[in-house]
## 1
Amino acid sequence: MHIENRTFDELKEGDSAELRRLVTADDLLAYANVSGNHNPLHIFDEDGDGDGRPEAMAPGSFIAALVGAVLGNVLPGAGTLYRAQSWVFHARIFADDEIVMRVTVTGKNEQDTAVTLATEVRRVADDTLVLSGVAEVLAPRRKVEYDSHDLPGLIVQRHRHFEKFLKKAEPLPALKTAVVCPDEPNALGGALKAREHTLIEPILIGAPDKIAEVARAMGASLDGIEIVEEPLERNAARRAVELVHEGRAQAIMKGHLHTDMLLRPILDKQTGLRMGRRFTHIFVMDVPGYPHPLLVTDAAINIAPDLKTKVDITQNAIDLAISLGMEQPKVGVLSATETVNPDIPSSIDAALLSKMADRGQITGGLVEGPLAMDNAVDIAAARTKGITSAVAGHADILVAPNLDAGNMLAKQLTYISHAEAAGVVMGARVPVILNSRADDDMSRLASCAVAALHHARINGITG
């Protein structure tokens, strides 16, 4: 924003200025942290007045502060100092309301450069008067211009996308889930937490004495939970597959064992859970500040996928994204460049995948490639490169050229951008929930919610 102030000498009665602002739930969280006002009326997922629903109501002082943005940025602008302010509130503002803040000069005092202004805030949708008042300020004498885009940004850390998954999945029937070797606190705790949220009904497979010991150490109850005795990891993973074949399990969840050990019986050509497509791994990521969930694939199974494998990687991700509520997922096929370069094989694969989608060989989503990371997720970067498409700058799914790139991308989002990641394997008869030992409770819950939502869609189940 370019800011140019109006000096005291330039101001005259009747001068007016306004700014518009969309109030968001993240705004209210940031203000609660800065102000120390944690009144639950202002928090998006809290019920502050006991009526059974969260309010996400903007604090009056927050709305008043937005009037100060007009005074400090526009009229009079830079150099303005408050002397006094009166407020009367006529209505309330909530998250997702758009408002307009307006100030009008009503008087000037030549002796001390004081200026009085009528101030008001209105809700844009219905022109409701929200706030009225009078401000008295000391107007600047010197002309000032500067660009405010140099200010550091602020991103609120919260799990808004994963919270939506949980809300959508919890009314569904609990997913009967074979949990393999839950003999470690994170593994068992994740399954029990998901059970508390009615996401899964776990069947614990492993050494009963070890599982019970972990539960005792956690102070957790195993009452009502079936435990299948299979002390050896390989037998426990095989038993999980058998439970699926028997119709007793609708998903498989990794516990405290290596991924290879879990997947080996699932991949068995004779007795496994193959469905015709390659097994592929998908990270569903909740990235702070990103407007929608971001799927990253493949980051854990296919090391150096060829074109045929990438078709399955892309199709599996599209199918999962649709289960999560994306009607026509946008797929960005990544490379080091946004143009086809014969010396970069991933750029050729990306172009072929894009064309295959155009010809109906990949269905359900919009596929664009090659795209570099920047112009896949940032519309400004896409425009700078002259890329015009429905996917560029808006990708829901990122298809990595190989496992190295996919895994690094997912870990960078997790550890540098503070994203949460839910991990699932697609391509089997049932979803395979693949958590990392480092995952926290929200990641484990989201993984179960993602699996439950996919199972519900492909089986026509509603909550």
Note: The longest helix spans residues 441-458.
## 2
Amino acid sequence: MRSLLRRLLLDTRYTLVGFPTALIGFVLMVTGFCVGLGTAVIWLGVPLLVGTLMVARGFADAERGWLSDVLKRPPVRPRYKPAPPGAGWFRRLVNPLTSGQSWLDLLHGVVNLPFAILAFVLTVVFWVIPISGLAWPLYGLVTSRIPGNVELPELLGLGDGYLVNAIFYVSVGLAFAVLAPFVVRGAALMRAGLGRALLTGVAELHERIDDLAQGRAAAVSAEANALRKLERDIHDGPQQRLVSLAMELSRAQRQLAKDPEAARATIGSAITATRETLDELRALSRGIAPPILSDRGLAPALAALAGRCTVPVELDVRTVRRYQAAVENAIYYACAETLTNVAKHSRATSCTVQLDQVGGVLMLTIGDDGVGGAHVAKGHGLAGLTDRLRAVDGELTVRSPDGGPTLVVAEVPCG
């Protein structure tokens, strides 16, 4: 109830304050535009048009601030086109005329007035009727005694008298009071929708483009880092083992004629090295795209990770559906890297892994009772996770104070 009342008050403030603001802005912008356009032929109208666009920008900035309260999202200010470096005074003066968003601000100031009037009227009606209806038993004691006074219930054929009038007006007031939060909210959203389309739509599109560009750059960086790590791991592990294996087999070949027993022992050692190399290659392949993940999904893949971790892991998977390969790979990689970090650095005695879908977001939560101090700075075990998750529009949150405990949360949109 408190949240509903707060929302009603915020929407009411938006619609009530918005009407006089929209009216003042409409007068200033229409007047400035018409006068400036009419006198542009003698160049006097150019600074008037520029001034009108700057006034429109001021009203637009105020509207964007109010939109954040109504739409429950942070305000987004568009990027106004700056003057070219080294431009002269006249080019800097007319620069607002070359910005498309400036003209959208002006358009909003003109077309916003009818929406502001409608929202204002609806808000006033759905505040006045509930208040006057619920308060009628108080002031009705006076109005019902006025000679010749005919109340609305009597005109509707419902009867007359103080009790009939009180029941009727209180009922109407209650009905409008119940509907008021929804009607006022709808009126506010109607006007806010126009503001968002004209004042922040282009800016939100630019932000989305920037996010996609950063995500692509993050994906490229993450893949490059993963390839470098894989190359280093192969060079330091399997490649060295294969070189040693080739040398062992060459030695066994030389020993076959002279010392068969020594050759047999060398071959046995080579077989053992071959198995160790295969195990290491399997471990490396699990870090890229484990077959269990593509064949059976996240739940079995996370269970396999938990089973291999040297720290006892309590696994809680609350969703068993399949997701896009990129989403599953990102979550699996986040879990694998985090559990590796827990095993190597945390000195924890227990760890919990929880996977759940909250709305359209797949959430992986990993906690341990270790010494803390984990973060995503370069050079630490979790450094590459941020880029890896950003590539799929995901986010990584790490809370790990010194002394612990540590909580790592990976969130990935899953549609």
Note: The chain has a mean pLDDT of 83.
